[in-house]
Amino acid sequence: MSSKAFNHLGTFPRQPVLSSSHLSNDHLSFEYILSILHLADLHIDIECKLGSNAYHSRPVCCHDGIPKPGELGARFWGDYHTYFLTKIYSCVGDHEPTPSGLFPTDNISWLYSNLASQ
Q1: For the chain, percent helix, then strand, then coil, each to nearest 5?
Q2: Cα 1–chain centre separation
Q3: What is the sign of the dihedral through the CA atoms of 47, 53, 57 and 61?
Q4: Could you tell me if residue 45 is left (phi over 0), alpha (psi between -120 and 50 degrees) or otherwise beta?
């Protein structure tokens, strides 16, 4: 296995592994904090152009066009403003407004109002 981990931006050295002697409170050093990058469900679009128009009605973002004055162009990773052209409906269960294992209160309209405004 390689001694380097790979990400989109390049390589970075692996962090040192903690030994049991580093786990006691009086020996723990912040230089041994582990950094983790978790990327999931990636959809790579090689035609995405940095700075292109991100506000449009097409199903694919950031391929071409110039943003209107005062609007930001597409960022390096694209833009979330136009990913969802159809309305997304939220779904909640009876446990959403309260901690797990407790019965919900009679008044949870605040939750439904919040979901409707999204």
Answers
A1: 15, 10, 80
A2: 29
A3: positive
A4: beta
Rounded Cα distance between 99 and 112, Å, is 17
Closest CA to 57 of 82, 77, 86, 87: 82
Closest CA to 56 of 77, 82, 86, 83: 82
CA distance 78 to 59: 13
Helix (H), strand (E) at residue 6:
strand 4-7
Give per-residue pLDDT as tens, 46-98.
Answer: 888 888 888 777 777 788 888 889 888 888 777 766 665 556 667 776 667 66
Which stretch of DSSP H or E encloses residue 7? Answer: strand 4-7
Domain boundaries, the chain: 87-118
Which residues neighbour 7 within 8 Å (Cβ) at sequence distance 6 or greater?
37, 39
